[in-house]
Amino acid sequence: KLSSLIEYQETVLDDHVAFQVSDKEFHTVIYQACRNTLLSKIAIDVYSYALEHRTAALAEEKSTVRSLREHHQILRSLKSHDPDAAERSILGHVDSIFKSTLIMQNKDNE
């Protein structure tokens, strides 16, 4: 499922709305794979809460490209069954999301 979402994302890099829909699904698949219903619901709620800022961040130049590159890294680490690499790639992606969302939130507050 993650592979097909990444393949789709490669075709919609210039369409930040289509990318965002696929991005949410990508994250949801990972949350649900953890089989922790409470954590999954919390993560989905947090993702949804920041959706407006994430959409704006993805509209910024190269944000979809960076996100896609990070998705590839996450998928590679999951496929290799390397929990340390998976943790690093996911934490790096979350940090990137946080930073780009914070930048957009600050722009909105100016």
List keywords for this structure.
globular
Describe the structure.
With 110 residues, the protein is mostly helical. It has helices at 2-11, 16-33, 37-49, 51-59, 63-79, 83-109. The chain contains six helices and no strands. The longest helix is centred in the C-terminal third of the chain and has 27 residues, at 83-109. It starts with a helix and ends with a helix. The model has no long low-confidence stretch (mean pLDDT 88).
User: Tally of extended strands?
Assistant: 0
Q: Which sequence of SSEs, written as H and E, runs from N to C?
A: HHHHHH
Instruction: Summarize model confidence as the mean pLDDT.
Output: 88
Structural class: mainly alpha
Strand content: under 5%
Unreliable runs, pLDDT <50, ≥5 residues?
A: none
Provide the gyration radius in Å.
14 Å
> Helix fraction?
over 70%
- Shape, principal axes of CA atoms: globular
Total of DSSP H or I helical runs spanning 4+ residues: 6
End-to-end separation in angstroms reads 40 Å
Sheet of most strands? none
